[in-house]
Amino acid sequence: MALKRIGAQTVKLSNPPSIISTASIVGPKEGEGPLKDYFDIILEDDMWGQESFEKSEAKIQEEAIKLAISNANLSPNDIEYLFAGDLLNQIITSSYSARQLNIPFFGLYGACSTMTESLSLGAMIIDGQFADKVVCATSSHFSSAERQFRFPLEYGSQRTFSAQWTVTGGGATVLSSTGNGPYITYITTGKIVDLGIVDVNNMGGAMAPAAIDTISQHFKDTGYNPVDYDLIITGDLGLVGKKIILDLLRKEGYDLSENYSDCGIKIFDGVEQDTHAGGSGCGCAAVVFNGYIYKEMMKRNLNRVLLIATGALHSSISTLQGESIPGIAHAVTIDNMIS
Asked: How crowded is the C-beta side of 119, counted as CA atoms within 13 Å?
């Protein structure tokens, strides 16, 4: 019997794991944005001494994982599982990171929802007493994502106003069966929602319906309401997706106008940095959570947060074949206190 399951899509953890450390590494553009003081490392150039953008991304993720482990005063030998994924074909960034770390590895693909997918699975593994310490991580890189999913950088294509800027960055979280919090207390696993959008330059529109589905189901399952949270934040819906979220959830009876934001909006100054609809990519939710949100929770400026990372589960092949873009969103509740 699934004793920890409540409602249709949510689990309430009996022994909520503690977030005992995090790490965030970002590129130069992200380091010029409004959240620059929250990141552990800001790169001076997005190649970071590597021969390619893909190798740079692998280094970013690997170093973020190492730093999170070090920040917890642990070594890789203390970590029982690594949950990680990224945007590149066959999640090569995470596989090459895991190759260097010698930690038992679960490779994940949730596109830009991977941060909360990894936190969900890592938390359930600990709550189920299968491990005491795990690392959850993901990353993305503007240049590697652009040439895989859109156009070669040399092409110099004009960006539409609905387009978002893939974040160059990586974030990692160490979860433990013991610790003083913050804690992961609820997990709401999303379903695929696809309303037929085919425009790869409108990720906010493609992913927002999945986020709406998960958020509303989370409230139904848990009995919580928007006012019960200090912050409700999606992964990378940007300006387009944020408007859709606010409008459609209000029609369902949930007013998020006072405490809702989006990682893709917070990470850049859209006007000064010319990022159009905002940030995106696996690294977007990863660095905003492991940098800004975690540190604000440690300061007790935030005490309960609902983090919903959102993903567009398309590929370059599916796009060329005219397929629509499936959306997914996974939510985790993060509490400073547990009852």
From this structure: 34
The reported pTM is 0.95
Beta carbons of 111 and 313 less than 8 angstroms apart? yes
The answer on 252 and 151 residing in a single domain is no
Asked whether residue 116 falls in the same domain as residue 190, the answer is no
Distance CA 252, CA 73 (A): 45
The one-letter amino acid code at 271 reads V
Alpha-carbon gap, residue 94 to 76, rounded angstroms = 15
Peptide bond into 209 cis (omega under 30): no
Strands 133-140 and 81-85: parallel
Per-residue pLDDT at 158: 63
- Low-confidence spans in the chain with pLDDT less than 70: 1, 148-164, 277
Element (H, E) at 16: none
Per residue in 229-273, pLDDT (tens digit) is 999 999 999 888 899 999 999 999 999 999 999 999 999 987 787
- Counting runs of H as helices and runs of E as strands, what totals does the chain give? 10, 15
Beta bridge partners of 110: none
Q: What is the pLDDT of residue 316?
A: 80
Which uninterrupted H or E stretch holds 56? helix 53-71
* 147 and 220 share one domain: no
Q: How do strand 41-42 and strand 18-26 relate by DSSP bridges?
A: parallel
- Residue 328 and residue 9: Cα distance in Å, rounded? 13
Position 84 in a domain? yes
- Give the pLDDT confidence of 107-125 residue by residue, as tens digits: 999 999 999 999 999 999 9
User: Domain ends where: 159, 176, 193?
Assistant: 176
Q: What is the pLDDT of residue 315?
A: 85
Please say whether the dihedral angle defined by the alpha carbons of residues 38, 41, 47 and 51, taken in this order, is positive or negative: negative
- Would you state the pLDDT for residue 206? 87
The tokens for 11 are 């689990």
Distance CA 172, CA 119 (A): 10
Residue 302 and residue 293 in contact, taking contact as beta carbons nearer than 8 Å: yes
